[in-house]
Amino acid sequence: MTDLEFDLIDNLYFVQRFETLLNAMDIDAEELKKLLFQMVQKEWVKVMDMQTDEEILNAEVWTNNYSNYFYLATKKGLFAHNTL
Length: 84
What we know:
Blueprint: H1 3-10, E1 16-17, H2 18-24, H3 29-41, E2 45-49, E3 54-55, H4 59-65, E4 70-73, H5 75-82
Antiparallel strand pairs: 1-4, 2-3, 2-4
């Protein structure tokens, strides 16, 4: 787990908006988007639409609207975070 991945999981113990993560992390929006995408692929982070209370599983749907979704660390991500 990289330092950025560790910091991101650190911020995702509770559901967070993209905007909140952007303010908490020391990276720009494009870097955060890439990091979140990588973390979702690793199954360390899940993407949620709070209006429908559904998890977003489709990468294309997520890519088109990533800044409007909410994010949360998964059990797998928390385990990876806490075993360092």
